[in-house]
Specification:
The chain is an alpha/beta fold. The chain contains 4 helices and 8 strands; from the N terminus they run βαβαβαβαββββ.
Length: 180
């Protein structure tokens, strides 16, 4: 696998978080009834950053939950011999809330579908709005993000690698050639 290009650097990453946070506030007319749900792993870190930015803008601390969709995936039995299941940490009632569901990359839509199933097992929210850092296309399901950091169309032999300083010691998004 070879790096084709660095698509977003650290400064661009920060601008995306700021823009998405403002878009969330604008679309929802503030923070009333909003909760953030980050999908493990990078979605969790993005959710924390969006929470911090909204707190900086509005002075409001939104509830934050972490969702692990491993057991809801339609491919987990085929792909994973020993699935790594993490903890879902939702400590508040999501019924009648406006959920901001956050993930790093939107590709086929299957992970988001899994998240929607998991959320509906926990309650009946008013709305679920999807935030993704990168939308790379190639949808297999009719799922569209409400907030997109960057659209990066890819070919089938390309991947998107999101690096975040919480894990990788840098904030960057790379386009990777998976055939090299």
């Amino acid at each position: 696998m070879g790096i084709k290009s660095k698509v977003i650097d650290s400064a661009g990453f920060k601008r995306i978080i700021t823009r998405i946070s403002h878009e969330i506030l604008e679309k929802n007319k503030g923070t009333q009834n909003l909760v953030l749900v980050g999908m493990r792993t990078r979605g969790e870190f993005l959710a924390r950053r969006i929470k911090e930015k909204i707190n900086e803008i509005e002075g409001i601390e939104l509830p934050l939950a972490v969702l692990d969709v491993t057991l809801y995936r339609d491919d987990f039995r085929k792909r994973l011999k020993q699935p790594e299941v993490s903890v879902t940490n939702i400590t508040f009632d999501i019924t009648e809330k406006n959920i901001i569901l956050i993930d790093d990359v939107l590709f086929t839509g299957r992970t988001v579908r899994s998240a929607l199933n998991a959320i509906m097992d926990l309650g009946r929210p008013n709305t679920i709005q999807l935030v993704v850092l990168v939308d790379r296309g190639h949808r297999e399901l009719p799922i569209k993000a409400d907030y997109v950091g960057k659209n990066i169309p890819t070919s089938q032999n390309e991947e998107i690698k999101v690096k975040m300083n919480e894990i990788d010691e840098e904030d960057a998004i790379y386009l990777i050639d998976s055939e090299k």
